[in-house]
Amino acid sequence: MNRSLFGTDGIRGTANAAPMTAAVALAVGRAAGAEFTRGGHRHRVVIGKDTRLSGYMLEPALTAGFISVGMDVFLLGPLPTPAVAMLTRSMRADLGVVISASHNPFEDNGIKLFGPDGFKLSDEVEARIEQRMRADDADDLAAPAHLGRAQRLDDAVGRYIEFVKGSLSKGLTLDGLKIVVDCAHGAAYRVAPTVLRELGAEVIALGVEPNGFNINKDCGSTSPKAMQDAVRQHKADLGVALDGDADRVTMADETGALLDGDQLMALIASVWLRTGRLRGGAIVATVMSNLGLERYLENLGIGLLRTAVGDRYVVEKMRESGANIGGEQSGHLVLSDYATTGDGLIAALQVLTACVEAKRPASAVARLFKPLPQLLKNIPAEPSALDAKPVQSAVREAEAALGKQGRLLVRPSGTEPLLRVMAEGDDQKVVAAAVERVVSAIAAVGRS
Question: Would the pTM of this model clear 0.70, i.e. be above it?
Answer without folding.
Answer: yes
